[in-house]
């Protein structure tokens, strides 16, 4: 809960600064937005990293494959980055670039998921042979 409060507080302050600076000229509004996005993004990723480490340890202690949780976290980070870039492009009126950022994120997530899909296919084929 404190993560959410800190992140929302920083985002609110950045939004106020951006609105104020746009009235004065706006040259630094993009820089403030980019800094806030980076700070919140890194903070969220680091916080999630602690939880993922704990979950990975629990899975390994119980003899489970922890590779899947790592792939899921990577996919989450990729989705977050792609969405952030796309939203920033939309803020600057670049709809085509925004859609390409989203497409790139989806493609990278698909490539990341191919080993999992391959494992599932192997298991299905193995059981079909029985």
Coarse shape: elongated
Q: Which structural class matches the secondary elements?
A: mainly alpha
Mean pLDDT: 85
Q: What fraction, in percent, of the residue positions are helical?
A: over 70%
Annotation field: number of helices: 4
Which stretches are low in confidence, meaning pLDDT under 50 for 5 or more residues running?
none
Determine the strand fraction and express it as a percent band: under 5%
Give me the count of strands: 0
First CA to last CA: what distance? 49 Å
Order of helices and strands: HHHH
**What is the oligomeric state here?**
single chain
Rg from alpha-carbon coordinates:
20 Å
Main β-sheet description: none
Task: Please provide a written account of the structure.
- The protein is mostly helical.
- The protein has a domain at 65-129.
- The chain is built from four helices and no strands.
- It has helices at 2-24, 29-61, 67-91, 95-129.
- Helix 1 packs antiparallel against helix 2, helix 2 runs antiparallel to helix 3 (67-91) and helix 3 (67-91) runs antiparallel to helix 4.
- It is elongated and about 70 Å long.
- The chain starts with a helix and ends with a helix.
Give the helices and strands, then pairings:
Layout: H1 2-24, H2 29-61, H3 67-91, H4 95-129
Short description:
The protein is mostly helical and 130 residues long.
Key words describing this protein structure:
single chain; elongated; mainly alpha
């Amino acid at each position: 809960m404190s993560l959410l409060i800190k992140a929302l507080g920083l985002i609110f302050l950045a939004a106020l600064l951006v609105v104020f600076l746009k009235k004065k000229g706006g040259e630094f509004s993009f820089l403030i937005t980019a800094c806030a996005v980076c700070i919140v993004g890194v903070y969220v990723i680091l916080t999630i990293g602690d939880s993922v480490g704990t979950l990975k340890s629990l899975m390994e202690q119980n003899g489970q494959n922890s590779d899947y949780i790592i792939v899921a976290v990577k996919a989450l980070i990729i989705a977050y980055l792609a969405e952030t870039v796309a939203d920033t492009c939309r803020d600057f009126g670049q709809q085509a670039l925004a859609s390409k950022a989203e497409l790139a994120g989806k493609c990278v997530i698909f490539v990341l998921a191919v080993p999992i899909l391959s494992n599932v296919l192997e298991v299905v084929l193995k059981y079909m042979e029985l």
